[in-house]
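Notes from the 1:1 (GR / supervisor)

We went over the backlog. Supervisor wanted to see one worked example end to end before approving the batch request, so GR pasted a single chain during the call. The sequence is below; no edits were made to it. Supervisor asked that the structure be written out right there so they could see what the output format looks like.
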Amino acid sequence: MKFNFLHNLKKLFGNKNSSVNSTTKILHSKKPVTRFAPSPTGFMHVGGARTALYAWAFARQNEGRFILRIEDTDKAREVAGSIEHIIDSLKWIGLDWNEGVDIGGPHAPYKQSERLESYRKYAQILIDKGLAYADPYTQAELEAFRKKADEEKRPFLYRDHRPENINILPKWDGTKVLRLKTPTIKAYEWHDLIRGDLKAGPEALDDFILIKSDGYPTYNFAHIIDDLEMGVTHIFRADEFISSTPKFLSLYEALEIERPEFATLPPILGSEGTKKLGKRDGAKDLLDYKKEGILPDAMMNFLALIGWNPGHGDDKEVFTKEEFIRAFSLEGIQRAGGKLNEEKLDWLNKEHIRKLSDADFKTWVMNFLSNKIKECVNFGARIDAVLPIIRERIVKFKDVTDMEEQGELDYFFSLPSYDPAILLCAEKQRKGKEHLTLKDLAPIFSKLQDIISTDLNASYTPDTIKKLIWPYAEEEGRGLVLWALRTALSGKERSPDPFVLISTLGKEETLQRVKLAHDEVLK
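Structure output shown during the call:
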C-alpha cells in the first residue's frame, strides 16, 4: 500500500520541521539511498558482506548514496571491537560509504544507541494516535498466556490479550514495554524487487514490542524509523525478514509513511548446498580470508557471484570492482540459495593473482615471507627471478608462507644440503638397469658440469637449456639424469623442473651446486 509521504509527514510534524523536509527531499530524489545496518555481535561473515556489497553496488551504479549504520540496541549480545571489525571487513573488500558511523554525515548519529530520543519521538506519535500502549502484563502473566496457547495447540498472539480500552491504561513512562496496537488485522500483499509478489495472512500480525523496558527500541521499530529519517529508498535484506514484513507494513501504515522498496536476497548455503550457512555452521570471519592471502578484489568477486550472475548469455566470472558495478542488476539476482564454494574462491583468487602487476605481486609475496628468508645473502639479488615461479604455483598468498615452511624456497637463496635417500631416488628412474650407489651418480654430475660450462651461453631460457641437456638425458636415461640434476640444484624431492631452476639460479650458481652434489656423492 502506498501513502502520500509528504502530506503525512507534514501532518505529523508540521511544515517547519527542517529534518523532515530534508528526508522528504532525499526520498523523492531520483537517486537511490541504500544502507547496511549490522549488529555488533561478533565477526562479519560472508552473508552480511554480500548484503552490503549488493546494496553498495546498486547505489554506486545509480549515483546514489550508501550508508553504514550500526544497530546496537541488543546490549546483552554486543561484542567489544565488533564495530571496528565490521568497518575493517567492508573496507577490505573495497566498499566505501557516503555517511556512516565512522565518518558522520547529515543524519548523524549512526548508532541506534545514540538515537533513542528519535525513537521516543515516533513512539509518542503512535501513542497520541491511539496506536501504541504500555504493556500492562507481568512476565508471569505472559507466560501463563503462552502456556494456555500451547495446551490448546494454537499459536500465541499477544493481540488476543490486548486490553479492550488501551486509553485507560497507565501512561507510558519509558520504563515499561511499549507495544504497537496493530491498526487493522488483515492480509497483506507486497512486491519484492527480487522475490516478486508476496503475501501473508492476518495471522502474521501481532501487537509487537516497539520499545523494551530498558528504553531501547526493538529492531522491528528502530530500523523503520532510521530508514525514514535517513531517506533510505531501497532495503537489501536477508530472507529471514520476509516473515516479519507484515508487521513492518502495519507500522508503515500506522505512521502513514511510504515504505522503501524491498530486495530480499537468496540465502547462502553451506558447501553441501543443503543447509543455510551460519556462524554455527562453519561460516568464517571475513578477515580470516584476508589472513589466508585472498585478494580483496577476489573476495569481492566471489561474494558477488553467490546468487548473482550478469545474465543475458554473459558467462563472464572474473570481475574487477568497476566491472561489477557496471554489470550488477537486480534482475541478475536469483531467488534460490547460492552455495558457498571455496574451491571457486581459490580459482577466482588465482585469476586475480594473474592480473597483478609484477610490482604489486612482489609486495604481496614479501608480506607473507619471514624475515629469516629475507636475510639470506642472495635474497635481494634473486627474488625477482623467483617470483614467476611462485606466481605459477600459488593459489592464495598463504601458500607462499607454506612453501617457505616446507623448505620449497630457501634453496633459491642459499646452497642446498643433500639427503642421500633423495639423491638415490634416481634409482627409481633407471628401470631395467643395475642397482645404483651414490658414487654411480658422480659421472652424471661430471657430464652435466661439462655441458653447462661449455655450451650454456648468456642468453639462455628454460627452453634453450632443455635443448642442451636433452640429448644426454635421452642417452643416459631421462628420469635418471633429470632427477639427479634437479636434486643437485634444490636438494629437494619436490621442486620446479631443472631447466627453470638453472635459468633462475644462473650459470655460475648452477655449476657450483652440481659440483657440490658431485663431491657429496664421492664422500
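Supervisor's comment: Residues 46-61 form the longest helix (16 residues).
Batch request approved.
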